[in-house]
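Give me structure tokens for this 200-residue protein.
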Amino acid sequence: MPAIVTTIAHPYWGALGALAATTRADMKISQAKIAIQLGLTVRDYAALESGFIPAEVADALGRTKFSTFDKVFGWDEGTASKTIEGALRTIINPVPVLALGDRSTYPSAAWSRLGKAVQQARMALNISKPTLAYAMQSSSKTIMRLEEGRIYGDPRTAPPGDYNSEKYLLKRLPLLEMALEWEAGQATQVLEGSIATSAA
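Here you go.
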């Protein structure tokens, strides 16, 4: 593998970001100081640690030599490169999502079930996506992803640029229920499968 990689994008940087975050915490140094030493912006470095890597951030990371990561973090030579190679092998030979440390509270099937229920209820009440988004203090894009069941507990399990946070949605379920004229707790019941989609 060459010293500089320009094509590595999310989720391949996740493992390196996690290692960097742990090492930085041990070093008791700020993200800003590490970013300067790596030649990155604070935004780009923060994205690396978060595991959510937009295309433009991936390009910036790809221009940084692996040896620079090793030097800045005091790692053994080749550590950054080996970490990326390990992530690549994981993608080529995937293991179950839960084994990767997925932090989802509900499986994708549960979110798909809730998404269908939300769409049915919204259309029955003749509520537009922007209106529902306003009621939930969110965005139309969030409503679209919710109705399509594209909700993830961990950015590493989401397609690139398609991260819609489960934690974010769970906090807004009471607002969703009020907007759709549901009973309190009904959204959670749909997620848990105790209410059929057609009954929501």
